[in-house]
Amino acid sequence: MKPAPFAYAAAESLEEVLALLGEAGDDAKLLAGGQSLLPLLAYRLARPSHVIDIGAVPALDAIDERDGRLRVGALVRHAALERCELNGRWQAVREAAALIGHLPIRMRGTLGGSLAHADPAGELGVVATALDADIVLRSVRGERTVPAAEFFIAPLITAAAPDEVLVEARFTAPAGGFRSVFEEFSPRVGDFAYASVAAGCRVDADGAAHDVRIALGSVGPTPIRASAAEESLTGSALHDAAIAECARMAATACDPSAGDWHADGEYRRALVASLVERALTRLRDTP
Amino acid sequence: MAGWLAPDESVAVNLTVNGEARQAHAPPRRTLADALREEGFTSVHLGCEHGVCGACTVLIDGAPVRSCLMLAVQGRGHAIETVESLCDGDDLGALQQAFDDNDALQCGFCTPGFLMLIEGFLRLEPEASRQQIVEAVSSNLCRCTGAVGIVQAALDFQSTRRRSP
Predict the structure, then answer these.
(1) At A166, is the secondary structure helix, strand, or coil?
(2) Tell me: the pLDDT tens digits for A126-175?
(3) Are A92 and A180 spatial neighbours (Cβ–Cβ below 8 Å)?
(4) Predicted ipTM?
(5) Which domain holds residue B147?
(6) For position A206, which CATH number holds?
(7) CB–CB of A42 and B64 under 8 A?
């Protein structure tokens, strides 16, 4: 359980990261909090030739709400996200951060690392998918943003090119009373979730739901947006029957082959239905 | 601009451990846990070496962290605390004494990790509820005595610290 040898450099600025990436070639890995990379190195599932430590790069650890968007820097630790003051609009972000691994993992792990690692069970990827996050990538070629829906390609594979560094995620949610929540089921606190749900909506004066957002985690190769389930609830009052129907439709959006020896596909589908129901009920009942 | 360290290049790594400056020598791939052990801090136990068991938990700038999931070179410039810092001279510190009083260990292999986990958690959340303590304790694995005594030790230590912070 010792990492294989690699060359190492600690960058002190974003420009340095980009220059080092250029020098290192395609077989480099970026190291932020290390809570996903270090286990991969220990197992030698990853054997990068070069590791570039971005942990000390300044100005990547801001949490900033403006223009209707929540901007979270790549080096924001889960523990900071979990403890920050955010209004109900962004509550799913905070709730998801609090459910990542265990306390010592959250003390080191970062938003950028979690998104770039692209584990299908990663909580923040599910929230990014529900809240239409733009993932901001920087390289010597410039900056580009990739919507979360296009960022996650397959387990541990993203749209980021080898010379790009993830610098920020910009979550988006409508104004006017939109709220979001996060629910997951894992057999023990801190374990990988068997299924997770990020959900949000705005309830109008007549009690009808609008801007419904539902994304699912751990039930496919990437986070999944349950679009048909969202549409089924749009314009409808959040009564029990409508919620149950929406939950049923969300469950059909799962990849039925997503099961493994921890939990088969049917079980995960049943969990998704329960979690969607729980999330929507909470959105309805919590003032 | 920061230069590359070659894979086999052993470099001086300045660490502050329990308030004391230490200079370890480590190649880039050396974990902080291994570097601390080589520096004589053998309370840092290695169970799984991939971030699951928590036996190697130390405090980094006051926060509980798994030292097998950090490279030694990442430890530069941070204050590191190990179990050795909990002792009261030659005597057990209050948290260690609470473990003894509650039979919170049998073989003792996981104990240093649990001690640093609880010390760090209660610094962050001094008023933590029993349920929060249970969740925090679930971060680490104990394979012989179970968590009941450990949780009780944490609760006892919390009330001791409340009386005399």
Answers:
(1) strand
(2) 999 999 999 999 999 999 999 999 999 999 999 999 999 999 999 999 99
(3) yes
(4) 0.95
(5) 86-163
(6) 3.30.390.50
(7) no
